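Consortium newsletter contribution from the modelling node. Members have asked for a concrete example of what our holo predictions look like. Here is one, prepared for the KG4 complex that several groups have been discussing at recent meetings.
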Amino acid sequence: MTIVLGIESSCDETAAALVTDGRVILAQHIASQDEAHRPYGGVVPEIAARAHVEKLAPLIAATLADAGMTLDQVDAIAATAGPGLIGGVMVGLVTAKALAMASDKPLLAINHLEGHALSPRLADATLEYPYLLLLVSGGHCQILLVEGVGRYRRLATTIDDALGEAFDKTAKLLGLGYPGGPAVERLAREGDPKAVPLPRPLMGKPEPHFSFAGLKSAVMRAVVAMEPGENRASTPAQYAHAPQAAPYTRADIAASFQQAAIDCVIDRTARAIAVAGPVTALVAAGGVAANSAIRTALEALAAKHDLRFVAPPLPLCTDNAAMIAWAGIERLALGQSDPLDIAARPRWPLDADAPPVRGAGVKA
Ligand code: KG4
Ligand code: ZN
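And here is the predicted structure:
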């Protein structure tokens, strides 16, 4: 049996996990930093890095203790080496290097996106390559063709905001706090998805790329135009004197935004299915894959194309260390490991050959 210790620290979750090649998560701990970042409405890199420094070592110790193990019984140490907030990534990678050196075990420097890409195989032993992966989180918004370990073809990416970012910004505009995705989903249940006309950027375009900046701006305009009496919590100052007339509520905006997001995701994913070639399944991962309305729509899309729909359980969808340990297990099984002087990378595309996307980086 192979046992790998995984470490994740690329954003605002500090996490450690022990995973076996038999797909058993022996123990895991996740420390969320939501409270620390909430006053700022988003992740503050310096606060994140300091929190990782404080939390990681005790968290690894607790994970080993829960499994009743010492480092000597671990076969390898895997840590996220990028992409992500570089301060946090360095905390995790340097810790992994120290543990690997002290215990004389192999080090696996894992691409965080590879962790997400392979995580469905940790949850589902029957999932075979190649599969189509929709990766939608606060930091990522991509569709990847996963052909094997280390073999990823990026079919689509966002040219501006990630989908989770759009959920978080909508939540902020509606005064719902951080992280915004779950709060928008809850409020959307009480609203009318057709109440507010909102754009569906890039819908119908032949390449399956995403864009959400224009949708976010339209949400901002809708918030400004909202009925008097509705909470305009964080309306930017320049709009403070705009007339309030439109006959819809905050819940209507949440529902209409979510519907626009779903329409975009389904249209773009359908396009990716059309250009991907044969695949065994449609897989969704990343924090936004926790959204049950999006899951339901993706399930229907997969059924329409006679594809299996696989979504890892929610704790494996959001950032976690078990997926990093699992990517380590998959790479270790192929005889791979990394040198102790490997560098942390703030940017690290999974598919280095993917052509640049026209319009990328343009924020509305
Ligand atoms: O994967 P994740 O935990 O971290 C990143 O790598 O970004 O994803 C976090 C993102 C946040 O933007 C959060 O608002 C979004 O996922 N999210 C959701 C839901 N739950 C989390 N978005 C929509 N609906 C949800 N239920
Ligand atoms: Zn992630």
